[in-house]
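Justification of computing resources. Each target in the renewal requires a structure prediction run like the one illustrated here; the chain below, 599 residues long, is used simply to show the kind of job we budget for.
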Amino acid sequence: MTRTRSGTARRLIALTIVVVGALVFAVRLFDVQVVSAEELGEQAKGKRAVPIVIPSLRGDIVDRNGEILGTTDERYDVQLSPKNTRVGGGSFYRPADEGGIATVRVTSQQAFAEIGEITGQTAEEIETIVDDALEEDPKSDFAYVKRSVDLTTLTRLKALNIPWLTFDSNHARSYPNGAVAGNLIGFAGADSEPQAGVELSQDACLTGIDGEESYERGADGVALPGSVVVTQEAVNGGTVQLTVDRDLQWETQQIIDAQVKRVGAEWGLLTVVDIRTGELVAVAEDGSVDPNDVDAGDPTKREARSFVDPYEPGSTFKTITAAALIDSGAATPGTTASVPSTWRPEDGVVFSDSFQHEAMPWTLAGIMLHSSNVGISMLGSKLDAETRYDYLRAFGIGESTRAGLQVEDAGLLYPPDQWDRQTSYNTMFGQGLSSTIVQTAGVYQTIANGGVRVPPSVVASCTGADGSVQEPEHGEAVRVVSEKTADSMMQMLENVVKQGWISEHVSIPGYRIAGKTGTAEQADGRGGYRGDFVHSFAGIFPADDPQYVVVSSIAYPTSGDGGVAALRSFHDAAEATIRTFHIPPSTGKYRKLPTGDEQ
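Resulting structure tokens:
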């Protein structure tokens, strides 16, 4: 009887334990599946979900016609999970055929060999990558196999169906035209980080917004089918359009490179401007950088020197003084002065013309023709320093351009109260101040455009991924001198070309040319001037219907005539511009102005 009760008690206890256990399990199951399901699901997802950045593409840089100057090539990084190469005894199964029914066992060593055959590595090299990663971290889940492979290589690797092999896109900047406009485009460093030029100044337009997706994977690192979720779509960068013409830019770079080499010059610059719009259609510099291989070029020539390296322009700025005289009513092209070859207007001030001559009764037109420092100063002295300074500023001197680059130098123009007596005279013929070649081109653009200065531009627009177009602000057009003054200046500048020695070097059959030479000393950095010169020519064509300005500068020639090199640079660039834009020949007739040589 006692044994029966004892057995029954034990059965009751066991049953109670089972019932209680079942209740606990049921409660826990209810909690997991119902009460805490969402929270636990998120925790589990967090442990196995893998977030992936979807890189946006950096936008293109194109020329005025849409030709690509800078773009983004999509490359790919090949990577693996070291720890997962050891899962399953270092082997995995993959489909043996396209149907995917039969499978074949593949060892990690076999996979290493297959990968290496495609990437150009040995199986041993890849195994070393794995071993090194696991030695550093036994749970290592990441190591690079090969970086920046092309799409063909990626496709072949994906076809291997190796579960622990993964890929990331890796964008690289590419410049299909090499050094063409390299000085303007700039370049990008690692990870497409902008370093200079338009790449840097227009980075906000070119940079896109990365997207994001995630997928879930199992313990073996393999993505679970159907688990990919895009949480943020990628938005690619915009397209920056420049004002330059790719083909003309290439031609002008060839021209300036050839002339610099021919005369052994230190550097050369060559700029072409559309008179009516202020657009820079070519900005050529010798030794322009190739953004694809920045280190191969001269490091001093990586920047856009046409915007950041001002120099004293010399006699090309006599045009400003002459325009100020005519516009203010202080002189006309026929106003005369008895011009000696050397002049001492006051104590401690002396300057001379570039050649010896007796006192000549030159008109203002004659002074421009002979590029007389003395003559332009004698007539220019009719204007007070403040007035002359105001005209210089109105022509854009001493003011930074806003063409679209990150840095654009203002040049050097001290206010009149900081001029010493010599400088007060020197500024009348382009010494004692400095400007970039783009600023100098702006002076002649103003004269050719009827006296209205249109600020220069090299960046035309940014077109976003959504098609929206934004145009940068380059400044307002301003009237600097009257249309009548500009017309008088055009006549004098054409007279300089037609009657001067330069005619044989710059003349283009069928086209009337106007312009002015400049030969300028440059500061030596020690309070004095160098013994060599920068030679320039600023020309306008056609003179009867002005459409383009070309300015060329050749610095410090050592084995030839820098003045002639500047003239030839203009001539060749003007011919190239005529061909590029199909400019019709001149139809009007040149009118000769009295110079004073007739007397």
